[in-house]
């Protein structure tokens, strides 16, 4: 569906060349929700803009639905853009138009006549749940409602691909979830391929099928969301995963406990899918002569299944602790020893 | 009563002068609006980070705007006498003032248009491009409607400045209230004529400002 081959984008600044995107290869399948996560400046924003030709790569090839976005221009590019639509962090609605007129805008661009525009706009308003707000101006809407208008507008020309540029970053957590539910719903209902960029692991966890992690213009890790959550490889990926699995309070509590219990080994256990239900811990406590202190435990729901994590402090003889860690390994539990600073 | 307060005022002449001022202001404002829009859009599109970024045409337009913006109006009128003669075959009457009025104020308004367009959220323009809009569609359906309140308040300020310019245009015999106040009022020491002409000019200015404010309020949905 979407194929990026050795995509590079360089910006010439006054005194140096900035490589925003560095030789990225990606393949995104039809009908999937693909997330790209990275901190600001990682190049994800530039990358997503090359999918609809708002930015031209300085090297490599972008193909979307058989169209080579990186080489077409003029009328061909404008035509192609009608099938690769986009929603934005700050919604980018025209304040001079009502909700209905904003949604009609892409239809006007596509040359749809007025008689056909009206029923289509009504249908879209119903799809995003904004009945009764047709004649409101954007300034009268909440952030979540504005993004719903943005989504309706993006769907007007029945696109094949929807690009989401930090679409929930300006929204509060509750509204974020309702927008994510709407995106999941239209992904299923219209079999729409969705590519989203974000810096929030929560968004990836909640709706994405696959994820790519970007750092300094490169994709450093990629895979199924559940896989990445279970065993993140790169330090940056581990940091993103801990956004969801560790709250700041817990981090504080852990450092507090570390200070209070200078001895003992801190370990993090990861459970996936059915394993979350097995009594591994009970067996650990019964089998080994050590004290097990549970510092934190939680279960996260991802698109592909359940993911649980527990942080333990094991206190006892060093050989016994080592044996206990070995036991957890043999039980197929992801185990990671947390280093003391 | 009115006869006693303003003994020297010839009301027919005053009415005629008022109409001349209104005519000059209205026609000059219309052309200033159109030419200023074109200049402002050109400056915006060819400017740094514009859609048609082009140093050379931006420099030429900017130079044109800056030169005509900085020539004092009274000098511009005199400089333009040959052009006016060529265009209209005469340098007398309200029409004769129009070339100088328009050339004097269109570049000024052009700058205001450019500033108004620069205030538009770049994200909205990007959104229109992402939908496959042509530049012409972006101008018509994004740039102009989204900057309309600023465009209107700009043309209001310009129209009021034009009322003042029409008074100066009196020196080349263009007529109008300024001309009447100068010739009949000042030169013949009939203060009442000057006062009435001034009051009428004030009324015109207030009405323009009121209409402008009303339109800004109507178009601003932010």
From TrEMBL, chain A:
<keyword id="KW-0029">Amino-acid transport</keyword>
<dbReference type="InterPro" id="IPR017871">
    <property type="entry name" value="ABC_transporter-like_CS"/>
</dbReference>
<protein>
    <submittedName>
        <fullName>Methionine ABC transporter ATP-binding protein</fullName>
    </submittedName>
</protein>
<dbReference type="InterPro" id="IPR045865">
    <property type="entry name" value="ACT-like_dom_sf"/>
</dbReference>
<dbReference type="InterPro" id="IPR003439">
    <property type="entry name" value="ABC_transporter-like_ATP-bd"/>
</dbReference>
<feature type="domain" description="ABC transporter">
    <location>
        <begin position="2"/>
        <end position="241"/>
    </location>
</feature>
<dbReference type="InterPro" id="IPR018449">
    <property type="entry name" value="NIL_domain"/>
</dbReference>
<dbReference type="InterPro" id="IPR027417">
    <property type="entry name" value="P-loop_NTPase"/>
</dbReference>
<dbReference type="GO" id="GO:0005524">
    <property type="term" value="F:ATP binding"/>
</dbReference>
<dbReference type="InterPro" id="IPR041701">
    <property type="entry name" value="MetN_ABC"/>
</dbReference>
<keyword id="KW-1278">Translocase</keyword>
<keyword id="KW-0067">ATP-binding</keyword>
<dbReference type="Pfam" id="PF00005">
    <property type="entry name" value="ABC_tran"/>
</dbReference>
<dbReference type="InterPro" id="IPR050086">
    <property type="entry name" value="MetN_ABC_transporter-like"/>
</dbReference>
<keyword id="KW-1003">Cell membrane</keyword>
<keyword id="KW-0547">Nucleotide-binding</keyword>
<keyword id="KW-0472">Membrane</keyword>
<dbReference type="Pfam" id="PF09383">
    <property type="entry name" value="NIL"/>
</dbReference>
<dbReference type="GO" id="GO:0016887">
    <property type="term" value="F:ATP hydrolysis activity"/>
</dbReference>
<dbReference type="GO" id="GO:0005886">
    <property type="term" value="C:plasma membrane"/>
</dbReference>
<comment type="similarity">
    <text>Belongs to the ABC transporter superfamily.</text>
</comment>
<keyword id="KW-0813">Transport</keyword>
UniProtKB/TrEMBL annotation, chain B:
<feature type="transmembrane region" description="Helical">
    <location>
        <begin position="59"/>
        <end position="81"/>
    </location>
</feature>
<protein>
    <submittedName>
        <fullName>Methionine ABC transporter permease</fullName>
    </submittedName>
</protein>
<dbReference type="InterPro" id="IPR051322">
    <property type="entry name" value="AA_ABC_Transporter_Permease"/>
</dbReference>
<keyword id="KW-1133">Transmembrane helix</keyword>
<feature type="domain" description="ABC transmembrane type-1">
    <location>
        <begin position="18"/>
        <end position="212"/>
    </location>
</feature>
<feature type="transmembrane region" description="Helical">
    <location>
        <begin position="22"/>
        <end position="47"/>
    </location>
</feature>
<keyword id="KW-0472">Membrane</keyword>
<dbReference type="GO" id="GO:0005886">
    <property type="term" value="C:plasma membrane"/>
</dbReference>
<dbReference type="GO" id="GO:0048473">
    <property type="term" value="P:D-methionine transmembrane transport"/>
</dbReference>
<keyword id="KW-0813">Transport</keyword>
<feature type="transmembrane region" description="Helical">
    <location>
        <begin position="93"/>
        <end position="110"/>
    </location>
</feature>
<dbReference type="Pfam" id="PF00528">
    <property type="entry name" value="BPD_transp_1"/>
</dbReference>
<dbReference type="InterPro" id="IPR000515">
    <property type="entry name" value="MetI-like"/>
</dbReference>
<feature type="transmembrane region" description="Helical">
    <location>
        <begin position="150"/>
        <end position="173"/>
    </location>
</feature>
<feature type="transmembrane region" description="Helical">
    <location>
        <begin position="193"/>
        <end position="216"/>
    </location>
</feature>
<dbReference type="InterPro" id="IPR035906">
    <property type="entry name" value="MetI-like_sf"/>
</dbReference>
<comment type="similarity">
    <text>Belongs to the binding-protein-dependent transport system permease family. CysTW subfamily.</text>
</comment>
<keyword id="KW-1003">Cell membrane</keyword>
<keyword id="KW-0812">Transmembrane</keyword>
């Amino acid at each position: 569906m979407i194929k990026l081959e050795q995509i590079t984008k360089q910006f010439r600044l006054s005194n140096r060349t900035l490589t925003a995107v560095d030789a990225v290869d990606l393949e995104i399948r039809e009908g999937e929700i693909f997330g790209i996560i990275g901190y600001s400046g990682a190049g994800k924003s530039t990358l997503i803009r090359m999918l609809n030709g708002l930015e031209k790569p300085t090297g490599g090839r972008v193909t979307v639905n058989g169209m080579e976005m990186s080489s077409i221009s003029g009328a061909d590019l404008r035509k192609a853009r009608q099938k690769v639509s986009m929603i934005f962090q700050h919604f980018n609605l025209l304040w001079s138009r009502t909700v209905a007129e904003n949604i009609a805008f892409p239809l006007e661009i596509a040359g749809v006549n007025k008689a056909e525009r009206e029923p289509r706009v009504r249908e879209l308003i119903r799809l995003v749940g904004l009945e009764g707000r047709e004649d409101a101006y954007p300034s009268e809407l909440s952030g979540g409602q504005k993004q719903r208008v943005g989504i309706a507008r993006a769907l007007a020309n029945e696109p094949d691909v929807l690009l989401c540029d930090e679409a929930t970053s300006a929204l509060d957590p509750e509204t974020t979830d309702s927008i994510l539910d709407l995106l999941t719903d239209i992904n299923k209902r219209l079999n729409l391929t969705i590519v989203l960029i974000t810096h929030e692991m929560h968004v990836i966890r909640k709706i994405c099928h696959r994820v790519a992690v970007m750092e300094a213009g490169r994709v450093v890790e990629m895979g199924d969301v559940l896989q990445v959550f279970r065993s993140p490889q790169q330090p940056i990926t581990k940091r993103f995963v801990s956004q969801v699995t560790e709250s700041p309070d817990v981090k504080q509590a852990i450092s507090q406990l570390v200070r209070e219990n200078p001895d003992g080994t801190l370990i993090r256990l990861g459970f996936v899918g059915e394993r979350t239900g097995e009594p591994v811990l009970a067996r650990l406590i019964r089998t080994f002569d050590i004290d097990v202190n549970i510092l934190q435990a939680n279960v996260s729901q991802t698109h592909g299944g359940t993911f649980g994590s527990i942080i333990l402090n094991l206190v006892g003889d060093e050989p016994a602790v080592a044996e206990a860690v070995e036991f957890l390994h043999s039980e197929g539990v992801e185990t990671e020893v947390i280093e003391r600073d | 009563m009115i006869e006693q307060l303003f003994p020297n005022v010839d009301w027919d002449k005053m009415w005629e002068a008022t109409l001349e001022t209104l005519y000059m202001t209205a026609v000059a404002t219309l052309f200033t609006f159109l030419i200023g829009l074109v200049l402002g859009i050109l400056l915006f599109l060819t400017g740094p980070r514009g859609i048609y970024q082009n140093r050379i045409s931006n420099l030429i337009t900017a130079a044109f705007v800056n030169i005509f913006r900085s020539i004092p109006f009274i000098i511009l009128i005199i400089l333009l006498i040959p052009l006016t003669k060529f265009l209209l075959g005469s340098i007398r009457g309200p029409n004769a003032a129009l070339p100088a009025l328009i050339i004097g104020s269109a570049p000024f308004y052009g700058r205001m248009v450019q500033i108004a367009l620069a205030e538009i959220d770049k994200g909205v323009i990007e959104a229109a491009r992402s939908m496959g809009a042509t530049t012409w569609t972006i101008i018509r359906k994004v740039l102009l409607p989204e900057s309309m309140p600023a465009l209107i308040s700009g043309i209001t300020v310009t129209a009021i400045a034009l009322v003042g310019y029409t008074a100066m245009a009196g020196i080349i015999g263009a007529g109008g209230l300024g001309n009447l106040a100068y010739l009949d009022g000042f030169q013949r020491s009939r203060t009442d004529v000057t006062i009435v002409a001034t009051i009428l000019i004030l009324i015109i200015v207030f009405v323009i400002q009121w209409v402008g404010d009303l339109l800004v309020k109507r178009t601003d949905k932010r």
